[in-house]
Structure formats: structure tokens, C-alpha cells
Design a protein that fits this description.
Helix content of chain A: 25-40%
Structural class of chain A: alpha+beta
CATH topology of the largest domain in chain A: BirA Bifunctional Protein, domain 2
CATH architecture of the largest domain in chain A: 2-Layer Sandwich
GO molecular function (chains A, B): proline-tRNA ligase activity
Enzyme class (chains A, B): ligase
Mean pLDDT of chain A: 94
CATH superfamily of the largest domain in chain A: Bira Bifunctional Protein, Domain 2
Largest sheet of chain A: 9 strands, mixed
Largest interface: A-B, 63 and 63 residues
Protein name (chains A, B): Proline--tRNA ligase
EC number (chains A, B): 6.1.1.15
Shape of chain A: globular
Strand content of chain A: 25-35%
Oligomer: homodimer
Domain Aminoacyl-transfer RNA synthetases class-II family profile (chains A, B): 48-430
CATH class of the largest domain in chain A: Alpha Beta
Number of strands of chain A: 30
């Protein structure tokens, strides 16, 4: 592609409204422009990267026989009412009326639509398992769209849905998708972790989120420094039996669990993990009491809660306190013998901390921030049951499909790649997703020898099968170098003063190493270097 | 792909709600399902065809350096207000409000969005010409969605937009796109005509519509039986000098042209062409008077209009009447000498008819029905002027961009291909867009020899690089043959009773010819036949 007429509006300055690196660099490198809050145009350079990511996703999914289809973006409201999500989704679901006043949603996800299709199309266990995917624009009206492609209102997703007759079949596909995701994210050049995540309210079961590690990530991951273990911090179990001394200091934490007020006992310095506690206490809602609620329930202030004032309430202690024979109540300083407290039960209530033993028994917990780029999810039968989607089994009995769903944020993945692959001068693309393989520069396009050699190389390098961006602009060499670093193609080939000898400079963007090479050896050298870079 | 678990829900019966062949066949062949009026799911078989059409479009556009990007579907209303189309588009434009109450449109076309991007991104004649395209889901709230993919509310389009500094540059790109469209529609197997079309109200100039010939088409095309000439019937000029006798019978037609009532004189049996007449009379609106308006203006009934009653009104005659020395007024039977009428001017006012001489002087006009599958359009400066999008020319002066736009209905093209390629048994895919190249059938999957040979062929045929659909279902041979004809892959390979000898049957879907072949010669034969079919 000739850069002279390539739509590549690079910017010198960092845009003031972009807070994170990927957003800044995509604007500066002429990859995208904003059309409205959280709504972007992907310019040709970005489109090329997106296409390469999509091709890798397609390749890995087709390799395990996932079938591509395209579901519509306009969803009749009736479908979402069948599962109750028309009301549950709130403002994030973009709604509209057609000319006849009928209600539609703009699809943020497609469980309802695919379930309605399969409900009518399959019918027999003989056609199972089925696994289908699509790559498509999705819509979600985020309250605060931000960070460029990391949290937009219109974005590109790969979503897949699988249908099964047995739990084993669902698990097979779930595992196969998990492994495909590992291959996909590895191939696009990401450092990531598959973390145990919250299956939420929709009756789902197992779920892993794939997180690209990055400081700007909105999620905190707890991971083992020696094993594969990783979990969303809210899902990380804490090993029992961590009492560090025989008389630990503890805090009394009054909470409302569904409609009952109970007292939680946590070690001093420990933080309540509400997500885990919901599961452990088997309740639907859990909230710590505010000052007024404490006053009403205990006729005293939070800071004055004591063994005496909480008498009569159910008392549940964090499991790390199990085995301690006495405690010091943190806010009152009272020493309490264990027998004075009637602890009803012990449970895993607290947030894991850095330095804790890993729950899998291997290594120590570290924290990292992550960007969610994918998720695999066993949905179970929530959608098939609420929508009446069933198949006939071998005995002719109707059963609801067991379902899985599997998402990858394509546009977000592109942003995550940039978050992980940049330096002070710009983007540093991994070869597999680079918009072009090579950046060919004429340093002085008025010099005939340079122009002529550049034209010749442009032709021959393309013929060798590489994608070449050819900077044929009548700009100064300094401008071209700066843009080349900003755009960050893996290999730069500069045609300069030694053109007359047939010598050009080859520079590797990621390492900064450069050397002069005769054009007779250029193709071999590029081949070798791209190979090396791909193997990193 | 193994058909046993391929999502391919074929239907035996013709769905009652489908009126045209392509709609019926896409439902019956398990290619699509309706989600709402004019809103469809493309099942895997259709998705494969769409991908092949898209690949051909991409290839031909990239060959002439059109750059791919992706514009958003959510358009802030402000952009559409800049051109006045927010009001003009009426109910066809799907509108919605975001959570903050801001107005958005769902893009049916992207002139406003791309112009806003280029307005900020380019700025200099040095970066021109620019030509960008995208392939994307579009939305249009049709009053009467019908005929399946031929008139839907959510559909796939390729749209391209070009920007230029000179009329010559625009014309170069316009011609290049025209030729690319010819190649694209030829390659996907369509019989089509490029027809002269109406540039409408948006200040555009030249425009051609690409029409796939089909009886179900909503447009009538007038074309020459010997030359390339073709035009939308409303745009077809009529050759002057067609007076067939010296005393032709004529009709008096009172019309309101803008605010003036004038009398048009047309040959008997000729029909007024309002679109052409608007241009010829250089007015903005034109309508024939109704009975009441005639009564008010002429104090008589339509049938009683005579030379006397219309006295004083401007009289414009169809050019075919030029040269006649006398007329017979059709409704009164009065004979009128030409000198008695003060005809102000002659113009091309009437609809062309079958049998007329072609306007290009070559051959005779025939009519055909067509499906609009593409359009090339010189937009001129309507969008750039109304949105203030300008570049600096060589003298540093600001000029509005000259623009072109170029559309292809991708999903509609798929339907048009089926309209042209089917028989009483189902679809007959052209090789270039067939969802698979080969259909491999095991006629009796319980027979071990057949099953074994089929599995072996499935592997080797795929290794040869062909897309193979493998009917491994435990169905009767008759069911498999029926489905194979319905789905319509170019070549069917049936493994039946002669499996033990290593002999299979090869059948060509389009010609019906079949022959037995030994598996040692199978690949060569398939190669030859696909080659022959591709050259048709």
C-alpha cells in the first residue's frame, strides 16, 4: 500500500481526551476516530489488524468444527421477555421502536436469538452436540464509555453458543473452547491468564475469564507465582488454617443477609469478600450495615460494638480463625475467650491477599490487573428452560438443551495487544497481527536513485508475499522515521544514501537492532527476522 | 463438514409465507430463518455463500486500491442534521435514544459519517484521490419488507466512498468502479445489465444501477436487443422523429408543473414519463390534474377538453410529434391543423415502449425485470458542501471534495444468484459462490464398505483442497438425493453398491449428467468438471 494516498492520519500530540496507552496510540497512529462517546470508526490500519485477529479466531474455531453463522442485530422484544432479560438488562440494553411501534433491542449478546433458532431447527439428540459462532458488531449502552476500545458502546465480538444432550458433552466442548482460546490469545501475542470467574445470576456454572495482563485493566486477578492458578479476586478461595497466632485480633462486622442481620467475624486487616460470602452463606443479597442501621439494630455506634451488644445474633467466623482459642476484639480491645462466643459456623468470607498461600497449594498469591478479552461459560439450562427449547433423547423424551456460551472481545483484544506491545515511540506489533509485515521508506523521495530502488523493492517484496506499507510521501526522513516508529510494523526497510550501491538499512522495531544489507540478500534476511520474531 | 451435526434444517414443503423462489429455496435449503419481518438469521450454509461473495468483492476492490475500513452503525443525529437528511429520510431511518436521551440513527448508508471523518483527516489535494469501502450490516425500516433477502430491514451491504479534487479524478474512479462491478457480478455468476438510473434529489449526476435480470425484480429495464444500452424505464430517452403518419392521433394532458398549469401533447397510446419530464421541463414537481382540478381550471370535464377550452395555456408537445402538419385530438375526434395550435416547444416526455428504436441507434428496445444489486453514483459536492468538508488545492485555496459512492447489496446478491440459478429440484450453485464444492453421500451408512470408503474419500478430497459437505446421516438414499438436489452443490459424489469395487458415482448438478468412476480417477475427474463449470 502506498502511504501517499493511504488513509493514515497520524497525530504528533497525545490527544487530551485519551487516558490509556492503547487509546492514545490508536488515535495517534491513525487507527481510529471517535464518532460519539464509545462509538468509533476503525480506519484502514485498524481494520487490517482486526481482520488478522478475526482470521486467527476463525481458524482455531473451525479447526474444532465450530460452525459460523450470522444472527441479526435487531432482536424483537418478545424473545428477551421470554427469559425476563428485557426488564433485567436496564439501561445497558439499547431499545428502539420500528415504524409500527414494535419494540426491538440492539443485540449486546445473542443467547435468546440463537436459542429461538435452535428450538425450531434441531429437535433430536442425533444432531448434537452443536457449536456455532459469529463475529459481529454488538451494542451496549455503557454508563461511562471510556478507555477507547476497552469500554465502548459499539464493539466487535466473537460469540459462540453450544448445545448438548449431556453434561459430559457440554464439558467436552467447554474444555475444547478453553484450549482454543489459549491458542488464539497466544497466537495474537498476548500475555494472559485464564481466571476463575463469577457465574453470576443466570443459573450458570463453571466459567473462566481470559484476562490480558495490563495495568489499566479494570479487574484484579489473584494468581499463583508458581502454578497456573488464577482467579478474579472476588472468586479466589482462601486456604483454611491460616491462623498466625493463638490470640488473633478480629473485627465484628454486622451485615444484612437477605432479611436477617448476622455478625461476621473477620481477622483484623482482612476485607469482606461479598461475592464469595453470598455463595458461602447461600443468600441472594448481602450488605454491610450503615451507621444508622447499626444504631437501630444494636442501639449503639459501630465503633462500640462488643460481645455484649451483639448477643443473640447469629455469628459466622472466617475460616482462618478456626482453631484460635481466644481473640482480641479490634475496636474495643476486649480479650475474649473462644468459649464466650457461640460461633455458629466457619466459612470462607475474606478477600485473598498478596502473600497468601495459593488455594491450589502451589506457591504464593500475587495480584495483577487484567483486561477481560474472553470468557467461556457453562450456561446450563437457564435459556433452554425459560424459552422451552428441548430435544428428544434416545427414549423419545423431551429435555432442555444444556448450553454453553463463549465470547471474545475482538476490538478489545486489539486494544489489549497495544497495551502490552508499545514503547515510548509507539506501537510494537507482534508479527501475527501487524497491519503490514514491512515498512518500506524512501528517505529522500526527490533522489532518483532512491525513488527508483524503492519502487523496485516495493514490487519485489510484495511479490514475495509480504504485506508492505510503502512510505512514498514527499516528507523529510525524520518525519518518516517518527511515523514508522509510531505505527510500529515489525521490520523497517529504509532506502537512503547507499541506494546507489544497492544497500538498504533493515531495522527491527522491537529490538531496535539495525544493519545495512545488500538488496540481493534482503529477502532472505527479512524471512529470517520475521521467523525469529514469530517464535518469540 | 459432516452433515450429521451441521446446522442445516432443510424443509420438505414450500413455506406458505414465501412468494419468490429465492426466499422459498433459502428457507427450504436450511440457509436462513426469519427472526422478525425483514430480519433474518443466516445459517451456516448461507454464511458460507456470503463469505465467498464478500471475498470476491474484496479481491476486486483491493485490486484497484480501495481501502477497507469500518464505520459505526450508531450515527449521532447531529451528522444527519448537517445534510438535512435527519428530517428528509422519514420512517425508513431507524432512530433511537441513548440512556442520556441523545438521538441516534442506525446507519442505512454512511455518506454523513465518512464525510465527517474525511473532513477532519485529510485536508490536502496531495492525499487525493481516496477511495474507501466497508462491508457491513445496514438497517432500513421498509414499509413492506418482503421477498426474503430482496427487501429486508437488516441487510449486508458493501458501500464505498471516494473523494477527489477534480471532476476527471472522480470520473476515473467512477469508471474503475464500474468495471470492477462488471467483474464482480460476472464472477458470482449473475446475468446483469448496468442501467442508466435517476440521480434523484441529492444533487448527484451520473449514476448506473447494476440489475440482475429476474422476473421477480421490482424495476423495469429498457434495453437494446443488440447493443449494451440499458436504462431504468423512467430514464430511457426516446429517439426523436418517430412520427408514423402525417395525421397522428394525440391526447391533451393537463399537468401542474410547479405552480403552473400547462398542457402536454402526447401521441395516442403513449404514457407520460414523469421523471424525464421533470428534467425536460426543468421543474421540481409535476402531477397530472385530477377531475376536480380540471373542472376548476377549464370549467369542463377531462373528456371534453378541446383546443378551445385550453386556449391561453402553455402547450408542450412530445418530440415524436415534431414535423406532423395536423393532428386528431383523441378524446374529441377533432382534426386540428398544426398552425391552429401554438405549440411552445417539443420535449422528450413519454415512456419508451418495447419495439422502439434504441436511443443509442443500435437495435430495438426490449423490456426486462431486474433486481438492483449495485449502484455507482457521482455525488458531486452535496455532502462536502453541506458539511463543510474541504481540501486545500495547489494554490492553497479551500474546495469542497468531489465525491462518489458505490454500493453492492451483498445479501441481495445472494438472493439474486438463487433467482437465476435454480430448477424444480432446488438451487444450482455457480462454482465460485457454492457453499461447498462437493457433496459426498454415503447411500447406505450401515454398510461397512460404503461407510469406510466414504470416510476415506472425505479425508482425501478435503486434502485435495476442496470444500466437502459429507452426508454421513443415517438416512435413506432417497432423502439424501433430495436434500443434495435442494442444496445444489456443483458436484455430487455418491458412494453406493459398487463401493467394494472402488467405484463411485459422480453427478453434475447443473447438467444432470452422471457417470461411474473409479476412485483412482476421482480427483482428476472432479478437477476437470469444476474447471468446465467455472468456465461456463
Amino acid at each position: 500500500m502506498r502511504q501517499k494516498t493511504f488513509l493514515l492520519p497520524t497525530l504528533r500530540d497525545i490527544p487530551s481526551d485519551a487516558d490509556v496507552k492503547s487509546h492514545q496510540l490508536m488515535l495517534r497512529a491513525g487507527m481510529m476516530r471517535q464518532n460519539a462517546a464509545g462509538v468509533y470508526t476503525y480506519l484502514p490500519l485498524a481494520k487490517r489488524v482486526i481482520s488478522k485477529v478475526e482470521a486467527i479466531v476463525r481458524e482455531e474455531l473451525e479447526a474444532i468444527d465450530v460452525q459460523e453463522l450470522t444472527l441479526p442485530s435487531l432482536h424483537p422484544s418478545e424473545l428477551w421477555q421470554e427469559t425476563g432479560r428485557w426488564d433485567k438488562m436496564g439501561d445497558e440494553l439499547i431499545r428502539l421502536k420500528d415504524r409500527h411501534g414494535r419494540d426491538f433491542a440492539l443485540g449486546p449478546t445473542h443467547e435468546e436469538v440463537i436459542t429461538s433458532i435452535i428450538r425450531d431447527a434441531i429437535g433430536s439428540y442425533k444432531k448434537l452436540p452443536l457449536n456455532v459462532f459469529q463475529i459481529q458488531t454488538k451494542f451496549r449502552d455503557e454508563r461511562r464509555p471510556r478507555f477507547g476500545l476497552l469500554r465502548g458502546r459499539e464493539f466487535i465480538m466473537k460469540d459462540a453458543y453450544s448445545f448438548h444432550d449431556t453434561e459430559e458433552s457440554l464439558d467436552d466442548t467447554y474444555q475444547a473452547m478453553y484450549r482454543a482460546y489459549e491458542r488464539i490469545f497466544t497466537r495474537v501475542g498476548l500475555t494472559f491468564r485464564a481466571v476463575i470467574a463469577d457465574s453470576g445470576a443466570m443459573g450458570g456454572k463453571d466459567t473462566f475469564e481470559f484476562m490480558a495482563l495490563a495495568d489499566v485493566g479494570e479487574d484484579t486477578i489473584a494468581y499463583s507465582d508458581t502454578s497456573n492458578y488464577a482467579a478474579n479476586i472476588e472468586m479466589a478461595a482462601v486456604q483454611a488454617g491460616n491462623v498466625e497466632n493463638t490470640n488473633p485480633s478480629v473485627q465484628l462486622l454486622p451485615v444484612k443477609a437477605d432479611d436477617e442481620i448476622i455478625i461476621l467475624l473477620l481477622g483484623a486487616g482482612h476485607e469482606l469478600n461479598e461475592v464469595k460470602s453470598l455463595h458461602e452463606l447461600q443468600v441472594k443479597s448481602l450488605s454491610t450495615l450503615n451507621d444508622q442501621e447499626v444504631q437501630e439494630a444494636f442501639s449503639t455506634e459501630k465503633g462500640s460494638l462488643s460481645i455484649q451488644t451483639i448477643e443473640g445474633y447469629r455469628l459466622i467466623a472466617d475460616q482462618s480463625l478456626q482453631g484460635a482459642s481466644s481473640f482480641t476484639i479490634e475496636n474495643t480491645g476486649d480479650a475474649v475467650n473462644c468459649t464466650e462466643l457461640s460461633i455458629d459456623s466457619y466459612a470462607d468470607l475474606r478477600m485473598i491477599q498478596e502473600g497468601d498461600a495459593s488455594p491450589d497449594g502451589q506457591g504464593t498469591i500475587q495480584f495483577a490487573r487484567g483486561i477481560e478479552i474472553g470468557q467461556v461459560f457453562k450456561l446450563g439450562t437457564f435459556y433452554s428452560e425459560s424459552m422451552g427449547a428441548s430435544f428428544l433423547d434416545q427414549n423419545g423424551r423431551a429435555n432442555p438443551y444444556k448450553m454453553g456460551c463463549y465470547g471474545i472481545g475482538i476490538s478489545r483484544t486489539v486494544a489489549a495487544i497495544i497495551e502490552q506491545h508499545n514503547d515510548e515511540n509507539g506501537i510494537v506489533w507482534p508479527v501475527a497481527v501487524a497491519p503490514f509485515d514491512l515498512h518500506l521508506l524512501t528517505l529522500n523521495s526527490k533522489n532518483e536513485e532512491q525513488a527508483e530502488l524503492s519502487e523496485k523493492l516495493y514490487t519485489t517484496l510484495k511479490q514475495s508475499g509480504w504485506d508492505v506499507l510503502y512510505d512514498d510521501r514527499p516528507e523529510r526522513a525524520g518525519v518518516k522515521f517518527k511515523d514508522a516508529d509510531l505505527i510500529g510494523l515489525p521490520i523497517r526497510v529504509s532506502v537512503g544514501k547507499r541506494a546507489s550501491e544497492g544497500v538498504v538499512e533493515v531495522k527491527v522495531r522491537s529490538t531496535g537492532e539495525s544493519e545495512d544489507v545488500h538488496i540481493d540478500n534482503l529477502a532472505d534476511m527479512i524471512q529470517t527476522k520475521l521467523q525469529e520474531l514469530s517464535n518469540v
